[in-house]
Please model this.
Amino acid sequence: MQLEVSVPLLISDCTRGRTRFPLEAGTLAEALRLLVETYPLLRVHLYNEQGNVREHVLLYYNDDNIAWLDDLDIPIQPGDKLRVLQAVSGG
Amino acid sequence: MAKRMALLVGTNKGVFLYASDENRKEWSLKGPFLPGWEVYSVLGDSRHGNRIFAGTSHAAYGATIRVSEDFGETWTQIEQGPSYPKETGFSLNRIWQLVPGHPSEPDTLFAGAEEAGLFVSRDRGTTWRELDGLTKHPTRPGWFPGAGGMCLHTILIDPRNARRMWVAMSAVGVFRTEDGGETWTPRNQGLARVPTGQPQEEVGFCVHKMVLDPFNPDTLYMQEHGGVFKSTDGGDSWFTIEDGVTLRDGDAPFGFPIVVSPGGDLFLLPLESSEQRSVSGGKLLVYGMYKGENRWSPVGDAAPDEPHHVSVLRDAMAVDAFDPYGLYFGTTSGELFCSLDRGRTWERLPGQLSRILCVKPWIVED
Model:
């Protein structure tokens, strides 16, 4: 299933210059894994050395911050979106 | 072969390139490149084509090195750049320094990082590894940051010996290696100690910037948080050189940059005090100690006609290698100044930039 990924312009040099692009994945967990496997330059900007999402980065699955999801093995549905956002706390 | 000047200026909102010919009278400004990124370090490197390396960082997105092969028009992020292994617990927050290796090592680059650490690339910047003898030093638990963060901001290489190097970290101090960076020894005897609240006597020194004498690599000069210092024994011991530069009785001269010309002229741009961190009396007064002198003196006011209540950061002052040499500094308010007569008279370069973090002259041969 295809979902739409969006990233901030500032780090779009890691996604071949695109701020919106499709990604094929079966589940949200797979989408998160494939995102940094497909665009390896993106990893350092999204995750810290401990492998956690950076303090001022938010990953949203549709309207949900993934930090608050109990389970990431959610089947992707048509029209789903994965958004990389800079938290307001990041200035 | 014609030579020209590409003056690279890193700001907290991208990097700019001032271009001029060898005369450095007329300047054109390009940029911002990498807009939105802090550029704490930048290096023009002509050893394998003309490439610009930039240490880019952002409060949200972390720190990486990016490289341009077309004078800033396009950039590529280095995939295997500096990083700390998970088990160290360290974070890579900024790249504070990018320097080329010794002339005998043309494929080598070094990077100084925050949190403090030293990284090396032996393949022209493609892959990087930490020289972790530094962060595995027994004093590491006693390292604490200065106000700007715990940064490794100075990397010096002995021109006689590629394996002998110095690094300086704030607020840790100076370390020297004799084996190319595998093992390190603190070299801080005689420096003024700032209170970091930790008990280790060997560290806790807030070095702001350090340079190597162009004629004698055993001689180093330093602007420290607590004064201006010199060493004549490779950093084994330090003593003050502050005659003529004390702005307030009883206070050690405070400032960030110190630079040395190819001929041995030294320059500082002192600030009023540690508390105020702005130039004294609104004057952009540059102090010099010309080769052969043993006393500082105010050599030139860069902007005598109007007050400037600004600061100049540690890497925002630089000297080029032309003859006569150009002396440059950029302010925290984004103004850039140039002198071609040993700091006596100054021209302001066009443009008002963001906060200037680093100024790096680059002589390009066509």
Notes: Chain B has a mean pLDDT of 96. The radius of gyration of chain B is 19 Å. The CA atoms of residues 47 and 106 of chain B lie 7 Å apart.
